[in-house]
Amino acid sequence: MQNKKSYRPNVAAVILSSKYPEKCEFFVAHRTDIRNAWQFPQGGIDEGETPEDALYRELLEEIGCNNVEILGEFPEWITYDFPKTARGKVYPFDGQTQKYFLVRLKEEAQINLQAFEIPEFKEYTFVKYDELFQKVTYFKRKVYRRVIDHFIKEGLI
After folding, report:
1. Which of 23, 51, 11, 25 minimizes the C-alpha distance to 124?
2. How far is it, in rounded angstroms, from Cα 40 to Cα 26?
3. Are the beta carbons of 53 and 141 closer than 8 angstroms?
4. What is the DSSP string of the chain?
5. Residue 1 predicted with pLDDT over 80
6. What family, per the record?
7. At the N or C end, where does the chain have fewer CB atoms within 10 A?
């Protein structure tokens, strides 16, 4: 008998800099708890919370700023398994099912990774599309490419 896998409902933000559309750069941040892991901000959806509400809350918690404009939403939930090395950190879940949003930082937005007592990220940067997939952690690359390519195809990027 095989156990059914358990996936954590989650939101993720593809963040464009406030310079978009003049300059197309993506926000990525370096996690504090996983060596060399760069990724987009993301986090769980609390019970009774909409994905959009979770997006704003998670941005505030993880980057100290939710002063963004939502440009688009990926039409599907994307499910993936955690790599074996990360599974203990997120017990009892085997992976995540994520709703992705494309957002642009507003001009007056101020990122503050130290806004909360236990920071999720230790540093961040903005990268161009062709640099993005070299920078982010290996197990997120396929999903990120799928999501971003969708937003490009839809004319949102």
Report:
1. 25
2. 9
3. no
4. -PPPP-EEEEEEEEEE-TTTTTS--EEEEEESSSTT-EE--EEEPPTT--HHHHHHHHHHHHHS---EEEEEE-SS-EEEEPPGGGGGGGTT-SEEEEEEEEEEE-TT----TTSSSS-SEEEEEEE-HHHHHHHS-GGGHHHHHHHHHHHHHTT--
5. no
6. Belongs to the Nudix hydrolase family. RppH subfamily.
7. N
Question: Dihedral through CA 62, CA 16, CA 128, CA 38, nearest 10?
Answer: 10
Quick check: 24 pLDDT over 90?
yes
Instruction: Say which amino acid occupies 12.
Output: A
The one-letter amino acid code at 123 reads E
Q: How far apart are CA 69 and CA 66, in angstroms?
A: 9
CATH architecture of the region 7-153: Alpha-Beta Complex (3.90)
Provide, rounded to the nearest whole percent, the portion of the chain with pLDDT above 90. Answer: 76
Q: What are phi and psi of 146, to 5 degrees?
A: -60, -45
